Amino acid sequence: MFRCGFIGREIVHLLVTEDAAESVLVVDKVPPQMAWLGPKHQTAFKNDIVTFKSANLINPTSVENVFDQHYDWVINAAGETKIGLNESVYAEGITKLSVNCAEAAARHNVEMFLEISDGRMNSSEKTGMTELDACKPWCTVSSCKRQVEERLELIENLPYVILRPGLVYGPGDKHGLVRNLVMGAVYRQLQEKMKLLWDGSLCINTVHVTDLARAALFVCRLGQSKEIFHVVDEARSTQGSLADLIANIFAIKVDYYGSAASHLAKLPRTALPKGVPSA
């Protein structure tokens, strides 16, 4: 099991509490003691069946050294998720890292390799997207995740399943809904209206981290290889419905920039005008 981050720690907790494994190996650069685990996750990581190894998964040799015994399942919940980084950082921290793990899993004949991918592979204003639809990744992170998906198809002797979650939220979240909650608190303190890109109709499918962990355990047990599953809840959330919740919590007002300004925000800084000279 790679990573003791937001999703990985929840999978470890589920494996322990449901007696779903005889042993669990967690691999990450960051040890559990420094990973800001909550109380229930601390308890799970202290369980006798859980062991931890520190490794740099970008280094193939480091990954190979992890496999000192046979493992039935390899669950890759690792990958760079911070926003605003250089593309080369994502290429190494997502694509190279995941391919290293998958190739090592294939060499050691695991029964299932599970890749936690990204749900931002396509979008439609009219209909929901299926696993069979063509992929047009939204951002650099999802683009790198798509590259991983394509590479998995080429690795021989690798039984794999891909999960594409929506916006994951729950205990331990630092990069999803929590950012919006922090923004809501800031705008309340400033006593200003919170303005968001696009509009309220923007679809943002969500999934609780516990539900995602249960989905991971389910597909590993199912054993069907070369499958892709979208994992979202039934809320059919939109930016507007989520913003309304935040507005109610912090007693603030919400507005949107609309399409024109939002498209400008997507442009690189070099493409924007430097200014207008005065007459």
From TrEMBL:
It comes from the Eukaryota. Pfam families: Epimerase. Residues 5-230 form the NAD-dependent epimerase/dehydratase domain. This is NAD-dependent epimerase/dehydratase domain-containing protein.
